[in-house]
Structures are given as structure tokens and as C-alpha cells.
Amino acid sequence: MRVTSQLADMDMEIGSITRAGDRIVVQTAPGTGIETRIEIEPRDAARILGLALRNPRIIAFMFALPLLCRRARAQPRPPDPQNPWSQP
């Protein structure tokens, strides 16, 4: 995943997605970028899901995921020279 903001421009990998109370918690994988924890509240999760389900391109992307994942596995990603945590 690519994260671009005023603070960072780097690749990150999701390490875990868990539930803590009424929130979804997403954490980055160790060694793949700045350690990050994202807490998604119910209203945010509902908004994300609603936006995704109203966008035909996102729905098509979800159906294409098996093929896209197969292609991605066949072509390993080169290391990001701007990310000091990326593996050579």
C-alpha cells in the first residue's frame, strides 16, 4: 500500500486487522515502515463500506482481486529507494 501525505510518502504493509471494542484496529507489519495504528470507528467503517458499494469501479476491483493478486505474486515489487525500511 502506498501512503502519501504531507508527513510521509512511502510504502506500507498491513500487518494485522483486529477488533478492539467497537473499533477496527489496523496495524502495519513490523519493519515495513513507520509503525502505525489506525482505529476505525463504526461510523467511519459504515461510510467506507457505503462509498465502496456505490462505486462500480470499486466493486469491479473486488471481483478482479483474485486475478490481480495472482499477477502481483508473479512480479515481486522492487524495493522503494525512498523508504529506508523496504527490503533490498
Low-confidence stretches: none
User: Which geometry do the CA atoms define?
Assistant: globular
Radius of gyration: 15 Å
Classify the helix fraction into a percent range. Answer: 25-40%
Terminal Cα span? 17 Å
- Strand proportion, as a percent range, falls in 25-35%
| Most strands sheet | 3 strands, antiparallel
Give me the number of helical elements.
2
Number of domains: 2
The helix-and-strand class reads: alpha+beta
SSE map:
Layout: E1 2-4, E2 9-11, E3 14-20, E4 23-28, E5 37-40, H1 42-53, H2 56-74
Antiparallel strand pairs: 1-2, 3-4, 4-5
Description:
The protein has two domains: 1-40, no CATH class; 42-75, no CATH class. Helix content is 35%, strand content 26%. The protein has two helices and five strands, in the order E-E-E-E-E-H-H. The strands form two sheets. The chain has a three-stranded antiparallel beta sheet. Strands 1-2 form a two-stranded antiparallel ribbon. It is an alpha+beta fold and 88 residues long. The longest helix is centred in the C-terminal third of the chain and has 19 residues, at 56-74. It starts with a strand and ends in a 14-residue tail after the last helix. The mean pLDDT is 86.
Quick summary:
This protein is an alpha+beta fold. The protein contains 2 helices and 5 strands; from the N terminus they run βββββαα. It has helices at residues 42-53, 56-74, and strands at residues 2-4, 9-11, 14-20, 23-28, 37-40.
Keywords:
2 helices, 2 domains, two-stranded antiparallel ribbon, 88 residues, three-stranded antiparallel sheet, 26% strand, single chain, alpha+beta
